[in-house]
Amino acid sequence: MDKAEAPSNSLSLGQSQKLAVAGVLAISPDIFILDEAVSMLDSVSRQNIYELLRTLHKKGKTIIHITHDLEAVKEAQNVIGMENGGIFYNGLVSGFLDTKAFVRKITGEPLKVCDRSDGGLDAASVDPTFSFKDICFSYEKNEQEPDSSPFIKNVSFDLYSGTLTALTGASGAGKSTLLEIGAGLLIPQQGTVYSKEHPALAQQNCSAALFEAFAADDVAFGPKNSGIHKKELVALVRSSMDMAGLPFEVYGERQSAGLSGGEQRRLAIAGILAMNRDVIFFDEPTAGLDGTSRSTVMKMMRTLADQGKTVLFTTHHKDEADFADREIKIENGQIVSDTMPRVGLESNEAPETLEGSLSPIPPYPSASMLTSLKNASKSLSGSGWKKRSPLEKLGPGLRILLFLALFVTSLLSKNIIMCSAMLVVSIIYCTLANFRLKRILLSFVRILPFLCFFALFQLMFRQPLADEIRYTTWKYFTVTPSKLLFCLNSILRTYACLYCVSAFFISTPEQDLIDGLRKIIPSRSFILVLEVIFRFIPLLVDESELIVKTQIIRGGLGKVKGKLAKIKAVVPLVVPLIIRTVRRSEILADAITMRGFNKK
Q1: What is the dihedral of CA 448, 450, 453, 458, to 10 degrees?
Q2: Which of 103, 198, 311, 398 could join 184 in a cystine, given CB atoms 3.0 to 4.6 angstroms apart?
């Protein structure tokens, strides 16, 4: 319940998966169909879900669990095994588990446990290829907890050439955040990242990393941005797809959107391999993969390390962590264990020891764009991350009626006295919504040039009154007292309306607005349409953030400097955003149906 008031888009993918399961449980159906419902969860969370499913089963519920996880299979009574569109087994779980060939289809080849008896790499004889030094990072904080500690707390460790390192920890522990800081996507509040270049990062949300129509084109996106073309590009794409377990000859001309979830994950990995970086980060690279594909990906990472690459990956699976040369465990943003103790103590070394081999690498120039998108998304997702204002003590319905009264009165104000009075009232309304006076004055100054520009058009096209004083006349342009008064009234009226709207939306998050409208408008379908609209606005911001991440990682944005350059950089994001919006619309429609909206 500690996340009950947190915006849903602030959750990790594992936490989001638990939220989705909770949403299905809330409608208490007789039949549960779970599609890879625990693929992103840590071991403790998986066991909690399994315990819940056992309880539901004892209550007579029917549970169908689609999974690649052997632990989930062991929880079942009956197993239906499918391969290449056909059923190869249909019977009791005991018969399935007793047949090694069937189990191997789930687990793939067993992963070899790495021998760490020598204590790990001899740090004294090897220079690091990547280093975190005293990294601290915080997301936008809840104003109710201004003194809360950073999300990532003083993390320091080095990575070495030719090593495969596993980063483990519970869902929401900070693993993905740490990888994004290292890849230059997030700006730490404290500390420095050292490397020769930005690492390549294979994102956890693989579907967001794909936006080219065909598989081979998507893999080629990064290398083309690096200036690789023609035969060299084709050869690089072919080798990257083959290494990721997606044979170029079979998948090269397949549509990216038509691939399965596991195939899309391997395609995203192939796109990162094609970047040909010396340091590569993989965020949950085996989540949702079948046993054979999981073995392929793990062996691929081992091959990369054997080739001299520095590989860091996150995982919730113990056998994958044991397969790595080194395991670093993180809890609540802090390192709690490291199987290379000599390396783990290097946080006390002076940064000067890295000079000559590594250099500080700042975040990408476009990282600030990501931060702005993330903050915008959170501000659109509700008021759980800000201090409760006096206006929020009113009921949602009363807040809506108060806003409508102030807004309509401001809009209908005609004379200078009424417009001025409503501006004062709207400023008071803003202060009750916890707007700072400094912020109100700053917005006043920023908007004023635009309002003056429109006032100029009003001076040009509004007809003067008969026989009134003309301060100046130039062809069809005249300045008269009535025109000036009209322009001043328009400016004051606009300010009053804007302040009313701003105060209302900052004090009335989406859910409060919907709850209030339900009491005023008794139309279920109309309320659903409004709810979808309000939900989709932050969703589109989230999609934009994911696409920008992919563009940055794969060199699509390049060096963005100046406002014009930023505008040009945004243009290539439009088509992928439209495609992703359509996909998310379909998912949202399915979710609404599954939540029983059509039931009377």
Answers
A1: -90
A2: 198
